[in-house]
Specification:
With 180 residues, the chain is mainly β. The protein is built from 1 helix and 8 strands. It is 9% helix and 75% strand. Strands 1-2-3-4-5-6-7-8 form an 8-stranded antiparallel β-barrel. A hairpin with a 4-residue loop joins strand 2 and strand 3.
Length: 180
């Protein structure tokens, strides 16, 4: 038994000694205002914070998890807070100097509470997200995701929504990673 524990410890230590761990994430903000003949009808502010941590298995494959918090503040309306858990794998299929192209594939579970609404929303998603990275240095990279292809299921009380997404222009995100 002691030999098995020692062997497992040595295996984990050797993997982590050669491992490339990275942390980073994305932060987002948007605001919108709707008016009719100069009268403000609605105003909404949204903030998203999505830190993530990843582990480079080799030059082409990474595994990672993102944790997301989103807050929506609607003037004169319902405010919401949401949380999501998103584990995924990344395959880097192109490297050229400091530039690389990759695709992320994974699933996500989200939970949204909206003020004034009795039932909370549960969301499940499976998606593929292409992206690009540019290495500013050996330790810091800028990252952008451009669109997604996926399926999403949401349930609020008895209301169920199935959605298939193929988005390009309205799903562009930016972030940064630090490699250790």
């Amino acid at each position: 038994m002691k030999k098995m524990i020692l062997a497992a410890f040595v295996a984990v230590a050797s993997l982590t000694a050669n491992a490339q761990v990275w942390v980073g994430g994305e932060v987002g903000f948007n605001t919108s205002k709707t008016t009719l003949n100069g009268t403000e009808l609605a105003k909404e502010n949204n903030v998203t914070i999505a830190p993530e941590i990843g582990y480079s298995i080799n030059d082409n494959w990474d595994i990672a998890v993102a944790l997301e918090y989103a807050h929506s503040d609607v003037k004169g309306g319902a405010n919401s807070n949401g949380f999501a858990f998103n584990p995924y794998v990344r395959y880097t299929y192109l490297k050229s100097g400091k530039f690389s192209a990759f695709v992320d594939g994974g699933f996500a579970y989200g939970y949204v509470h909206t003020s004034g609404v009795q039932d909370n929303t549960n969301i499940w998603e499976i998606a593929i997200k292409p992206g690009f990275a540019y290495g500013l240095s050996d330790k810091v990279s800028l990252v952008a995701h451009v669109g997604d292809l996926g399926w999403r299921f949401a349930k609020t009380g008895d209301v169920k929504t199935n959605a298939f997404d193929l988005r390009v222009t309205n799903a562009i995100t930016f972030g940064a990673y630090v490699n250790f």
